[in-house]
From TrEMBL:
Residues 235-251 have a biased composition (Low complexity). Pfam families: DUF7918. This is DUF7918 domain-containing protein. Residues 297-324 have a biased composition (Basic and acidic residues). It comes from Rhodotorula graminis (strain WP1). InterPro entries: DUF7918. Residues 25-223 form the DUF7918 domain. Residues 226-255, 283-334 are annotated as: Disordered.
Length: 334
């Protein structure tokens, strides 16, 4: 008999092709598995499963020692929500993005949520970068030269889950990011003054995690379908009961496994039909796991997103000497 070979450990970290840096997403302090890794056009991409209602943390590093300082941004659904400045000397330490900062003392944690839909085109998100990048978690890596520390005069934004027009193609997606209740996280009050080697908006490299429901990952053949044991045939159950009653022992009946119902997606499918298909498969997956159903959450019109004045985190300004100032987090010591 061939020796037992343990299953290979799941891949959880996304590396660039040279392994200079890497990133991963964690849920409940555990890294999630990544699927279908690709490298193209200064971007490394993969897929992960969106676990409905779960908070997640985005992690960066450690990286190989490099010749430049770095600025790293966490970009959620197309919005830069947090930035980090790393010196070349300490760039080998891992760093965490635990949420979107909304004040100098509080953050709102990232949370997987069913996509929010509306039938009001005026209420739907019109920001091109958000609509284009919905369902993605990105780590943008920029090369910089840190000039020194300056007081942090950062102004903070309010972050809310994007609302999507239910008639758009994006409505066929499963999840986007919501933001949980505010938690205490005190900023240092300092920022780095930097010179950019890579222009803001054109990162040197990007690590991108595309998050989808398990059902959509199965539909796109990214992961294997969920399976469940099929009940034994009626005659097998009767034979087993009869044999047991006679005291002569019970025969071994092997459970057959069946794949979850396969639903094909084609370009000719209408949005309504596709959403219905996805909903049916998600409901089946939920039943197999003992959970509830799935599907987009339609936002009522009166649920208006609050607006808060202020610059987006990561915008830059110039000091009195003409140097670029970037409001970024200090390096973590943990």
């Amino acid at each position: 008999m061939a020796p037992f070979e343990p299953a290979a450990a799941p891949t959880t970290r996304l590396y660039d092709p040279t392994s200079a840096w890497n990133g991963w997403v964690s849920v409940d302090d555990q890294p999630v598995e990544i699927y279908r890794v690709e490298h193209k056009d200064r971007k490394s991409t993969c897929y992960i499963e969106a676990r409905d209602g779960k908070e997640f943390v985005v992690n960066f590093g450690p990286r190989l020692a490099g010749g430049t300082d770095l600025a790293v941004y966490a970009v959620i659904d197309g919005s830069r929500v947090e930035g980090l400045s790393l010196t070349r000397a300490r760039g080998t330490l891992p760093h965490k993005f635990i949420g979107a900062r909304i004040s100098s003392t509080t953050i709102r944690p990232f949370q997987f949520a069913h996509i929010a839909l509306t039938d009001d085109a005026d209420e739907a998100c019109q920001t091109e970068s958000v609509v284009k990048n919905l369902g993605t978690i990105q780590l943008e890596v920029y090369r910089t030269r840190i000039l020194g520390k300056v007081p942090n005069h950062e102004q903070y934004d309010s972050f809310e889950q994007p609302v999507v027009d239910e008639k758009s193609k994006k409505a066929t997606m499963s999840h986007s990011t919501a933001y949980g209740a505010a938690k205490t996280s005190v900023s240092s009050g300092q920022a780095d003054s930097v010179d950019w080697i890579d222009r803001l908006g054109s990162p040197f490299w990007t690590l991108e995690f595309k998050y989808r429901s398990r059902a959509l990952l199965e539909l796109e053949d990214i992961v294997k379908p969920v399976v469940e044991p099929s009940p034994p045939p009626a005659n097998a159950r009767a034979t087993s009961a009869s044999t047991s009653a006679s005291g002569s022992g019970s025969p071994v009946v092997r459970d057959k496994m069946r794949k979850a119902t396969a639903i094909s997606i084609s370009d000719s499918d209408g949005d309504d039909d596709l959403r219905a298909k996805v909903a049916r498969l998600e409901a089946e997956v939920g039943q197999l796991r003992g959970g509830g159903g799935a599907g987009g959450v339609k936002r009522e019109k009166e649920d208006v997103k609050p607006e808060v004045e202020g610059e987006r985190i990561g915008k830059t300004s110039e000091d009195e000497k003409g140097r670029t100032v970037i409001d970024l987090l200090d390096e973590d010591d943990d």
